[in-house]
Write a structure and sequence with these properties.
Elements lengths: L14 H17 L15 H23 L7 H25 L18 H16 L3 H29 L3
Helix pairs in contact: 1-2, 1-3, 1-4, 2-5, 3-4, 4-5
Length: 170
């Protein structure tokens, strides 16, 4: 691991993890479509929730751009660790979306991986990106991801408040 990796836009870079995340999530929603009404109206969010969410997403974008430009550390121990982390995240994403799309849309999803965490899709995407940060060996990308997740927690809290209003305590 190094603080800031040498940047090069090649096909063997952290962008492969970003691509895997997008393809996994996108293909799962194509395979398991679910027509759900827009549940999360952001008009009731506090200013803090809105600002922190925007900051978190902006920092996450910076992390993704760094991954896109950072070459993989193929053959190193960090590559193996990051690859395993990314695969765990991918498995979690497939499990979470499958469970979500097979649950009744008038009830909160609470089976499968949703028994372990209330936000398995978010956790899985974070694990996949964490794997990307590790396979490129970048402390900077890792720090950006951690900051993005800390700030993005406001988004999760706002969504939970809305779920409580819609579904009540479960």
């Amino acid at each position: 691991m190094e603080f800031f990796p040498g940047l090069a836009f090649t096909w063997l870079n952290g962008g492969l993890f970003v691509l895997a995340l997008g393809l996994t999530e996108g293909s799962m929603f194509l395979i398991h479509p679910k027509d759900v009404p827009r549940l999360f109206d952001r008009s009731g969010w506090t200013k803090k929730q809105t600002v922190y969410t925007v900051l978190g997403k902006t920092i996450a974008l910076a992390c993704v751009i760094l991954l896109l430009l950072s070459p993989l550390k193929i053959g190193s121990a960090v590559f193996i660790v990051g690859l395993v982390m990314g695969l765990i995240g991918m498995y979690g994403m497939v499990s979470a979306i499958t469970e979500f799309t097979h649950s009744p849309h008038d009830q909160p999803t609470s089976g499968g991986v949703y028994k372990l965490t209330r936000h398995p899709q978010n956790l899985s995407a974070s694990l996949m990106l964490l794997g990307g940060c590790i396979v490129v060996g970048s402390w900077t990308a890792l720090i950006l991801l951690i900051l993005a997740r800390i700030l993005g927690d406001q988004n999760l809290e706002a969504e939970e408040e809305i779920c409580l209003k819609v579904y009540g305590e479960t």
